[in-house]
């Protein structure tokens, strides 16, 4: 499903954040990316999500050459293909939980009634329907991250990308999110997960890849 | 103060918003300088210009046949202050090469260097003063001859125009060197006087009498009243523009300053977490707002001074005064005002930032302050509008103060545009009234003489020519009216002259000899009313049956030629052709019958109108640009605050186009409401200023010249607010659309 071939990403003047890296992810897989801080994990995730472009090499997701997409095409690709979950949730604080979850569908111009039903289902499934009308500022970290996951899943993306989804959470909340990811994967969701959390990687991932200095570490 | 430097440096790194702040402040200060100049120039323009030139209270002419130079000079002892005698000559000039043109009679005074004379320090408007014989300096007036032109005199010699000058006391129509004046054929001497008591007619009359019967005098009071007539026309107009400009500039500068501080709130939070005291925060904020503000102010002053040159020249021509030089005190005042406004708006914002709990300040940038605007966000989310549009529309409600400021900015811009468009239309209609005879007819036939000198009767010829629909003749006449010092300028007509289409302010057009229609100026001069009867020599009693608007402030009377039996006026005939008549063929027929005829055409706009239109256009363009820059600045600040949110929205699939659309629609509410509020404001100012202008000039305007706004025009103008706001948001929308998502998400 994901085919990253010989990709490098250099920021101006600096050494490469990613250095001739190649990586494949199959459908239904849950891949955990591990590695020290600054090793290029977030950079790789951004490339897959079409948020950034490689300096060289190619990124193909579901048959689409992501590295060749223009800004508008990349946005449409994200709507259809990618769900993103961040370490710091990145919810819009002036929208209610429901409105946050609805946002991807609304931006994509999906019919309102169907989207509402879907959002309600997701909130129910993720156990946060109690907070549907609340603003993110009032929720706990674990709850916020579940809202973020709900928003990521809103458009039924084939690929879920999560960048340290438990990084900002305490142990209990982290466990909630871990359980959630396990369930999702069990339902066949393809996931790429960046984490420092070995326990999380162990519990969820079908495969682990370790990055060091922008390259896949051997062994 | 290194902490302050850190905060300030943060601001410098945000290059785009700094440039916008500088530009917005610069434009606003430019507007302030020009508005200040307008207000200064419009306050007592005659009095100031008269004082500036140390004008002559009394100008006296002594015939050299009756008075010697010494006798003229001796009169100086009667006044508080006097200068002269200067040799005076009367001559006729015309630009060289224009043989057909009549000579224009000029009163020419010989003065070596008016700047050194204690009274009537004439101001040069262009070129230089006359240095030798053969040179002449023209007084700026109705007759304008550019420096460099050679003029012929009646005696066959020539003079070169070397400059244009203006004497507020109107002491001469042209100046030459004293030697040249003698050479032109001196007719007398000019003396100029100033008195301690010159304010009343009685005092001036006493001074005039004291000079003896040999002196022909001109009092400054008459000159002043003439000037007031001219000046009062434009004072309310320019004052209105000046005030709108000042208000708009203050609004934009204030908004810029407050926005600068607000966008630094998060950095302030960090600094506070590291130990900055609230007092230090306030100081840092003020410095941060003042630095780009000061840079902008200096640039604005430079631009304002440059633009002031054409502006003050235009204004001086309108007022018949001398252009104000670039006045340091207006500049200084503009800078002080800008700094005060910045400090006054930045301080409360800074104080709020200083008192904000550090944790809250840290959260700013991700979170809009408190829960404001949530209702709007909820309503927008429920609406069926496309999501980028509804997100944009709800956005400004999280910052009500900024929304209000933007709304006012748009309202001022729209009001200025509405006012300017209305003014231009009104002036065009007033001007058009003057042209009514020409525009309401197809052909005009001029008076001509047959070879034997007899005046043929064109009326009979016109009546007999096929194609003639209706026609009437009109000609000038001086009509003496009891109670008026001078004869009224009149127009006598024959045939149905109501076809000229003048608009009636009151009453009706005359239908019989013995009836007359008059202008507002006539009623003012005679103190009569419609329905009254006036008498005079050369005609029987005249009943005033109507008040007519002919676009002028003159004292004028229209009546049938039969009212004045003794009069033989040279008539112009205005003909309306029957539909389908070929005008060229018709003209040819008249020419073949020895009549001088041509197609009617309206004359071009007069000089005053052109000056006024260019002035209005300049000021409107400036005010609209200031408003657009104000919007631009607000949107840049807002997009900065929201850069993280924009990143999030992009990460879940918002395209650049949708992002741009969202940013532009974020000004939609302000644009729409601002436009809808600005149009009535501009409308009211127009409906106040234009009649006030006219009243000052002694004109009563028909409603048709004031009700110039068609409903569709008003609607268009209201929507123009939206367009103005969208134009201001266009650039930042583009920037927001291009923001790299990965970068935006990293931004804190
Ligand atoms: N926008 C940028 N400009 C310059 N350098 C960048 C940028 N983004 C990332 N880098 C650099 O690229 C390298 C990889 O960064 P990246 O964020 O991918 O690391 P990471 O593995 O996600 O680290 P962490 O576990 O701390 O999140 C780092 O050295 C970082 O400094
Ligand atoms: Mg990272």
Automatic annotation (TrEMBL), chain A:
<dbReference type="GO" id="GO:0098796">
    <property type="term" value="C:membrane protein complex"/>
</dbReference>
<dbReference type="GO" id="GO:0016887">
    <property type="term" value="F:ATP hydrolysis activity"/>
</dbReference>
<dbReference type="InterPro" id="IPR003439">
    <property type="entry name" value="ABC_transporter-like_ATP-bd"/>
</dbReference>
<protein>
    <submittedName>
        <fullName>Putative ABC transport system ATP-binding protein</fullName>
    </submittedName>
</protein>
<dbReference type="Pfam" id="PF00005">
    <property type="entry name" value="ABC_tran"/>
</dbReference>
<feature type="domain" description="ABC transporter">
    <location>
        <begin position="2"/>
        <end position="218"/>
    </location>
</feature>
<dbReference type="InterPro" id="IPR003593">
    <property type="entry name" value="AAA+_ATPase"/>
</dbReference>
<dbReference type="InterPro" id="IPR015854">
    <property type="entry name" value="ABC_transpr_LolD-like"/>
</dbReference>
<dbReference type="GO" id="GO:0005886">
    <property type="term" value="C:plasma membrane"/>
</dbReference>
<dbReference type="GO" id="GO:0022857">
    <property type="term" value="F:transmembrane transporter activity"/>
</dbReference>
<dbReference type="GO" id="GO:0005524">
    <property type="term" value="F:ATP binding"/>
</dbReference>
<dbReference type="InterPro" id="IPR027417">
    <property type="entry name" value="P-loop_NTPase"/>
</dbReference>
<dbReference type="InterPro" id="IPR017871">
    <property type="entry name" value="ABC_transporter-like_CS"/>
</dbReference>
<keyword id="KW-0547">Nucleotide-binding</keyword>
<keyword id="KW-0813">Transport</keyword>
<keyword id="KW-0067">ATP-binding</keyword>
<dbReference type="InterPro" id="IPR017911">
    <property type="entry name" value="MacB-like_ATP-bd"/>
</dbReference>
UniProtKB/TrEMBL annotation, chain B:
<feature type="transmembrane region" description="Helical">
    <location>
        <begin position="285"/>
        <end position="309"/>
    </location>
</feature>
<keyword id="KW-1003">Cell membrane</keyword>
<dbReference type="Pfam" id="PF02687">
    <property type="entry name" value="FtsX"/>
</dbReference>
<dbReference type="GO" id="GO:0022857">
    <property type="term" value="F:transmembrane transporter activity"/>
</dbReference>
<feature type="transmembrane region" description="Helical">
    <location>
        <begin position="708"/>
        <end position="731"/>
    </location>
</feature>
<feature type="transmembrane region" description="Helical">
    <location>
        <begin position="659"/>
        <end position="688"/>
    </location>
</feature>
<feature type="transmembrane region" description="Helical">
    <location>
        <begin position="20"/>
        <end position="41"/>
    </location>
</feature>
<feature type="transmembrane region" description="Helical">
    <location>
        <begin position="233"/>
        <end position="264"/>
    </location>
</feature>
<dbReference type="GO" id="GO:0005886">
    <property type="term" value="C:plasma membrane"/>
</dbReference>
<feature type="transmembrane region" description="Helical">
    <location>
        <begin position="329"/>
        <end position="351"/>
    </location>
</feature>
<keyword id="KW-0472">Membrane</keyword>
<keyword id="KW-0812">Transmembrane</keyword>
<feature type="transmembrane region" description="Helical">
    <location>
        <begin position="615"/>
        <end position="638"/>
    </location>
</feature>
<protein>
    <submittedName>
        <fullName>Putative ABC transport system permease protein</fullName>
    </submittedName>
</protein>
<dbReference type="InterPro" id="IPR003838">
    <property type="entry name" value="ABC3_permease_C"/>
</dbReference>
<dbReference type="InterPro" id="IPR050250">
    <property type="entry name" value="Macrolide_Exporter_MacB"/>
</dbReference>
<comment type="similarity">
    <text>Belongs to the ABC-4 integral membrane protein family.</text>
</comment>
<feature type="domain" description="ABC3 transporter permease C-terminal">
    <location>
        <begin position="619"/>
        <end position="731"/>
    </location>
</feature>
<keyword id="KW-1133">Transmembrane helix</keyword>
<feature type="domain" description="ABC3 transporter permease C-terminal">
    <location>
        <begin position="240"/>
        <end position="355"/>
    </location>
</feature>
<feature type="transmembrane region" description="Helical">
    <location>
        <begin position="403"/>
        <end position="427"/>
    </location>
</feature>
């Amino acid at each position: 499903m994901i085919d990253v071939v010989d990709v490098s990403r250099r920021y101006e003047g600096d050494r490469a954040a990613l250095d001739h890296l190649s990586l494949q992810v199959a459908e239904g897989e849950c891949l955990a990316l591990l590695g020290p801080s600054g090793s290029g994990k977030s950079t790789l995730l951004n490339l897959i999500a079409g948020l950034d472009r490689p300096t060289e090499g190619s990124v193909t997701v579901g048959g689409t050459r992501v590295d060749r997409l223009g800004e508008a095409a990349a946005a449409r690709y994200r709507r259809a293909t990618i769900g993103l979950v961040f370490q710091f949730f990145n919810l819009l604080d002036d929208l209610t939980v429901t409105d946050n979850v609805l946002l991807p569908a609304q931006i994509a111009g999906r019919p309102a009634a169907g989207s509402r039903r879907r959002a309600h289902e997701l909130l129910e499934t993720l156990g946060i329907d109690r907070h549907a009308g609340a603003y993110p500022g009032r929720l706990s970290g674990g709850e916020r991250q579940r809202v973020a996951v709900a928003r990521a899943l809103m458009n039924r993306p084939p690929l879920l990308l999560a960048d340290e989804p438990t990084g900002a959470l305490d142990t209990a909340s982290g466990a909630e999110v871990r359980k959630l990811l396990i369930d999702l994967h069990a339902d066949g969701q393809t996931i790429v997960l960046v984490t420092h959390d070995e326990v999380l990687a162990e519990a969820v991932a079908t495969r682990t890849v370790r990055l060091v200095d922008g390259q896949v570490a051997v062994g | 103060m290194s902490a302050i430097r850190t905060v300030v440096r943060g601001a410098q790194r945000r290059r785009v918003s700094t440039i916008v702040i500088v530009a917005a402040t610069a434009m606003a200060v430019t507007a302030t300088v020009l508005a200040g100049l307008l207000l200064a120039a419009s306050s007592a323009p005659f009095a100031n210009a008269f004082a500036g030139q140390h004008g002559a209270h009394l100008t006296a002419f002594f015939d050299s046949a009756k008075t010697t130079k010494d006798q003229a000079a001796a009169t100086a002892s009667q006044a508080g202050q006097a200068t002269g005698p200067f040799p005076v000559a009367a001559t006729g000039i015309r630009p060289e090469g224009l043989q057909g043109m009549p000579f224009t009679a000029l009163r020419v005074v010989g003065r070596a260097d008016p700047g050194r004379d204690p009274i009537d320090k004439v101001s040069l408007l262009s070129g230089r003063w006359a240095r030798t014989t053969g040179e002449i300096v023209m007084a700026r007036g109705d007759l304008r001859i550019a420096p460099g032109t050679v003029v012929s005199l009646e005696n066959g010699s020539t003079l070169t125009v070397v400059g244009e000058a203006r004497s507020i006391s109107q002491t001469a129509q042209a100046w030459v060197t004293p030697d040249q004046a003698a050479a032109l054929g001196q007719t007398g001497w000019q003396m100029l006087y100033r008195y301690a008591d010159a304010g009343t007619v009685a005092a001036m009359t006493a001074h005039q009498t004291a000079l003896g019967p040999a002196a022909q005098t001109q009092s400054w009071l008459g000159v002043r009243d003439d000037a007031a007539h001219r000046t009062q026309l434009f004072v309310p107009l320019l004052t209105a523009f000046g005030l709108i400009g000042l208000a708009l500039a203050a609004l934009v500068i204030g908004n810029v300053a407050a926005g600068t501080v607000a966008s630094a709130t998060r950095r302030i939070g960090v600094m506070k977490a590291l130990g900055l005291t609230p007092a230090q925060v306030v100081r840092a904020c003020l410095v941060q707002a003042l630095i780009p503000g000061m840079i902008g102010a200096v640039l604005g002053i430079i631009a304002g001074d440059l633009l002031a040159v054409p502006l003050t020249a235009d204004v001086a021509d309108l007022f018949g005064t001398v252009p104000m030089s670039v006045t340091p005190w207006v500049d200084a005042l503009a800078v002080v005002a800008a700094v005060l406004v910045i400090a006054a708006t930045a301080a409360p914002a800074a104080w709020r930032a200083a008192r904000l709990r550090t944790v809250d300040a840290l959260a700013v940038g991700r979170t809009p302050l408190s829960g404001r605007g949530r209702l709007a966000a909820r309503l927008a989310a429920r609406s069926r509008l496309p999501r980028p549009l509804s997100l944009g529309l709800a956005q400004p409600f999280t910052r009500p103060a900024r929304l209000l400021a933007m709304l006012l900015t748009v309202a001022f811009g729209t009001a200025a545009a509405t006012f300017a468009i209305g003014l231009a239309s009104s002036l065009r209609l007033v001007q058009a009234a003057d042209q009514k005879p020409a525009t309401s007819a197809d052909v005009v036939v001029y008076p001509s003489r047959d070879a034997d000198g007899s005046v043929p009767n064109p009326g009979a010829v016109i009546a007999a020519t096929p194609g003639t629909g209706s026609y009437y003749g009109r000609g000038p006449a001086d009509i003496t009216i009891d109670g008026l010092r001078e004869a009224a300028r009149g127009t006598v007509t024959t045939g149905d002259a109501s076809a000229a289409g003048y608009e009636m302010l009151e009453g009706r057009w005359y239908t019989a000899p013995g009836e007359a229609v008059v202008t507002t100026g006539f009623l003012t001069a005679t103190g009569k009313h419609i329905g009254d009867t006036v008498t005079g020599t050369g005609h029987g009693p005249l009943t005033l049956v109507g008040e007519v608007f002919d676009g002028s402030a003159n004292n004028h009377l229209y009546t049938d030629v039969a009212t004045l039996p003794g009069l033989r006026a040279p008539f112009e005939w205005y003909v309306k052709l029957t539909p389908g008549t070929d005008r060229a063929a018709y003209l040819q027929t008249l020419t073949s019958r020895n009549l001088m005829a041509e197609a009617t055409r309206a004359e071009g706009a007069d000089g005053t109108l052109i000056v006024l239109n260019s002035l209005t256009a300049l000021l409107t363009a400036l005010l609209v640009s200031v408003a657009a820059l104000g919007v631009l600045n607000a949107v840049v600040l807002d997009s900065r605050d929201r850069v993280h949110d924009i990143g999030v929205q992009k990460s879940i699939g918002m395209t650049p186009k949708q992002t741009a659309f969202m940013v532009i629609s974020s000004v939609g509410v302000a644009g729409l409401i601002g436009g809808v509020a600005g149009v009535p404001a501009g409308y009211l100012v127009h409906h106040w200023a234009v009649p006030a202008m006219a009243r000052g000039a002694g004109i009563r305007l028909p409603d048709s010249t004031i009700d110039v706004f068609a409903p569709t025009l008003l609607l268009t103008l209201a929507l123009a607010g939206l367009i103005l706001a969208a134009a201001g948001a266009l650039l930042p929308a583009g920037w927001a659309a291009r923001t790299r998502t990965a970068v935006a998400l990293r931004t804190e």
